[in-house]
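Good morning C.,

I know you're traveling, so I'll keep this short. The sequence:
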Amino acid sequence: MKKILLVNALQINEEDDGMGKYARSVVEFLENHFTDKVTVCYLLTNSGKNVLKHRIPPERIVPFDYDKSRGFFIRFVKENLEIPLLRHRLRADFYWSLDGKLPLYKGKATKEIITLHDLGYMVAPGHYRLSRRLYWQLIYRTTAPRSDAVIAISDFTKRQAVEYLRLEADKVIRLSPLVRGNFVKPELPPEPGAQNYVLYYGQLTSRKNIKGLVEAYGIYSQSTTHPLKLFLVGADKSPAYVAGIKKSLVESGMAESQIVFIGYASDEELRQYIHNCRFVINPSFYEGFGLQVIEAFQMEKMILVSRNTPMVEMIDQPDRYTFEAGDSRSIAAKIIEFGKLDPEALYREYLMESRKYRIEIAGENITKAYLEALEEIMEIR
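The tokens, ready to paste straight into the viewer:
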């Protein structure tokens, strides 16, 4: 009889953020490579069920009424009371939490696996509300040490897990995020004249340093008579923060046509935005990994990133493609340098920058790494 793996995939919804994209890629991996080894069931919200209804048989979906619009206390109680009961009812041999959270009550029968994305709530607390910092510190410090296996999505996150959570290094397995199967370069070339913008995509929050990027773009736009535009694609998670940026743009006289706020984009829309951009940029102050790097590489695009983040782990010649996140002039200097290059020259830059990722990490390499890690954790021979 096959063992049962229950996967907490509550992050998947119809407007996935980075964690939701990671969860969706894990589901794809398990369905393609692991369901012959164990019976995999998924804990899903109603929105997640809609996303995966054509991929996962109904008998392997475990519905969970989890609405993020509800109060924090209600969600906390549901996570810590109902999930242990569901694990017991299913007789799950393994429970894998894809967002790093485990119920405070462990139980004896289920072996626990967590994915740690980052420890921002502990390492960079200034970007989060007090209630969220206290909650995540409680969860991390209480449950991570007792888990049976910890997957860290970068060497950076692994080091911080060892330092801040006092985990044994051997217990933490470093596995880069997978890429969703539909995230491939479109067959048709970019639209004529379309490659006239630099692209940022992700959440529009202070941690992502959108204000610094906009300031850097202002410096860049004054350095040339024909500046590329700046497209900002992503959900507005901090309305007051974004409103302040837009107000400063009006006060500075920056044309709305130069900096374009797109809003949330689906995977298909995002592929087109990346495909048609000149290059991608991510100026974050803090990341656990930075999914944009491997997504840009999948789309054969160069990316500029903050050098104090784990995004540099994927990049060849990092000094050439990185900047200081807290220095708008450092960011601007890189935009100026690469903004002068035509698409053919930028493609050559992509080939140099992505060499390590393409040779050592992408494709079968990362699939093999996940298979070997999970087989060892679950003692599958």
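Safe travels,
E.
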